[in-house]
Amino acid sequence: MSGKPADAPLREYSGARSVARKLALQALYRWQLNAAPWQDLVLEFRDAEDMARADADYFRALVEGVWRGREELDARLAVLADREPRLLDPIEHAALLLGLYELSAQAEVPFRVAISEAVGLARRFGATDGHKFVNAVLDRAARELRPHEH
Question: How far out from the chain centre does Cα 142 lie?
Fold first, then answer.
């Protein structure tokens, strides 16, 4: 018997997804400053220092999903945030896009996880109180998109 707890694979899996989200946030931030196809972003970040610890497939799914759904995600964000996405801080915008994408397209991700991860990224990389805004917007989104979980 190994010394690992039974939930160790689950923690490693969720940890790899957290790293994938962090890298996706960085890729989406970069994309906002210098637009590029999602494939270029995936290639650019393939050699990132943390990629070895990331769920690379999930990173790709996040970047591609947000990139492909950007117009719909931004339209929904404009209503939820009560302001145009172009006026948002780029880190908060990227965190909101990730959270909103997970809430709308990744049903296997519990809504609390999607919100918590996006808020954590905004807290870590964004403006001082930006995480509060991200939390409020994604909570509203979860009530609309996942009323059965709320």
Answer: 14
Radius of gyration of the chain (CA): 15
Burial of 35 (0-12, 13-18, 19+ CB in 10 A): exposed
Dist CA 92 CA 31 (whole Å): 14
Q: Where are the domains of the chain?
A: 8-145
pTM: 0.89
**Locate tokens 């409020």: which residue?**
136
pLDDT tens string 48-68? 999 999 999 999 999 999 999
Q: Are 79 and 137 in contact (CB under 8 A)?
A: no
Q: In 2-150, which residue ranges form alpha helices assigned H by DSSP?
A: 8-33, 38-45, 56-68, 70-81, 90-105, 111-125, 130-145
**Does the structural domain 8-145 have CATH classification 1.10.940.10?**
yes
Q: How confident is the model at residue 3 (pLDDT cuts 50, 70, 90)?
A: very low
